[in-house]
Amino acid sequence: MNGSPINNQPTIEQTAVLLIDIASALMSSGAHTMRIIQNVSRMAETFGYEMDLSVFQLSIMMTIVSKDDPGKLLTQIRKIKPLHLNFTIVSELSALSWDTYDKKLPFDEVTSNYHHILNQKRMNSWLVLLLVAIANASFCGLFKGDFIAMIFVFFATLAGFFVRQGMLKKHINHLVVFTTSAFVASLLAGMGYVLHIGHTPEIALASSVLFLIPGVPLINSILDILQGHILTGMARLVNATSLIVCIAIGLFTSMLILGLEKL
Amino acid sequence: MTNDMIRLLLLDGLMAAIAAIGFAVISNPPKNAILVSAILAALGHSLRFFLIKSGLDISLATFVAATFIGLLSILFARIIHCPAEVFSFPSLLPMIPGMFAYRTILSLIRFMQNSDTIKTQGFMLDFFHNGLTTLFILLALVVGVSLPLLLFPKLSFSVTRKY
């Protein structure tokens, strides 16, 4: 019609579905709001549309308007899947959006690349479990915990993170998952107190639950607020804070059971 | 700077790097980003350690270290074509004020369980001291690392561009 080089131009419905899928994938992988808007509007521009996007905690709303024909527009709302951090997806979708823009990739190729990125395997969960346990043990070392405390934290984290992985796979409520795994981890780490082993049992107890701290959502929330996406930022902040409260409840419960609250 | 100090700095950096690797893999980053976040965490955390030892307040030292990480992360982002936050966020995690947060909750619990006025005043003091330190360190971390992102938005959004 207007001399477009691509023969099988996608319909506005197809474009809208792909763009909102990408936005929702970025959101549930842990990108901050500004990046989502930048990436998706860049792709929309390549396909010949102008895009407006608003992001909430549970859904994304998007309107695309054709640049050639302002009467041609479509609005969509899409649910966001629960947060499952995946920075490989964030990084590669970000690269895909630039590739689309710079190389004027055809729609079909973008779609197949998108599905390829989304279907990549995550890192082996046993390896992640081991690395997190080692990390939390050395975290305990950073807080001046002695070697025995680090060993206690290693095993406590191993158990706590195992519980977390298993429960998340069964799609149990996040708050319940965090409370339970904080409870398990601190119960094991508190054994140093009960058995009187080591000189710094309180550091072992405190750092045993720190692998659960939702660091990325916390940083994202402040970043969103600083960049003017205040509602989304507040939603993330409330979410992260309630997880931290759950960690505290789990820790407190095991302290009560072990009789450590009077220390 | 004495040998002992250098040894402590290296140990601090090493432990921060190990911690950063472990906390990074939870968010499944690209493989080369894991290495970068370990390097950034080691540099940032030992810088903070050094600043605290030279007498700086912990939240101010955290702010300086986080800004340092943020600036370096933009540099690395251009090298490996990967958004800066993918490796700058995990490298901040070893600086999360875990012990302060723990002591905040502990003093709150003790405050609730004690009825002795003099004791409870001490616990309230502990609560505010540790709670405010936690809050300010967290803010320093986030504002510090995102300063470069906010100052150079063009640069930080175009790092994954290859042409």
Could you write a compact summary of the structure shown?
The complex is a heterodimer of chains A (263) and B (163). By secondary structure, chain A is mainly α.
Question: What's the layout of helices and strands?
Answer:
The complex is a heterodimer of chains A (263) and B (163).
Chain A: H1 12-29, H2 33-46, E1 49-55, E2 59-66, E3 73-79, H3 87-103, H4 107-118, H5 125-142, H6 147-169, H7 174-189, H8 191-195, H9 201-207, H10 215-226, H11 230-258
Antiparallel strand pairs in A: 1-2, 2-3
Helix pairs in contact in A: 1-2, 1-3, 1-4, 2-3, 3-4, 5-6, 6-7, 6-9, 7-9, 7-11, 10-11
Chain B: H1 3-25, H2 31-53, H3 58-80, H4 84-92, H5 98-113, H6 117-151, H7 153-157
Helix pairs in contact in B: 1-2, 1-4, 2-3, 2-4, 3-4, 3-6, 5-6
Can you walk me through this structure?
The complex is a heterodimer of chains A (263) and B (163). By secondary structure, chain A is mainly alpha-helical. Chain A has helices spanning 12-29, 33-46, 87-103, 107-118, 125-142, 147-169, 174-189, 191-195, 201-207, 215-226, 230-258; strands at 49-55, 59-66, 73-79. Chain A folds into two domains: 12-118, no CATH class; 125-258, no CATH class. Chain A has a three-stranded antiparallel sheet, with helices on one face. Chain A is elongated. The N and C termini of chain A lie far apart (79 Å). Mean pLDDT of chain A is 88; it is low at 1-5. Chain B has 163 residues and is mostly helical. Chain B has one domain. Chain B has helices spanning 3-25, 31-53, 58-80, 84-92, 98-113, 117-151, 153-157. In chain B, helix 2 (31-53) crosses helix 4. Chains A and B meet through helix 2, helix 3, helix 5, helix 9 and helix 10 of A and helix 1, helix 4, helix 5 and helix 6 of B.
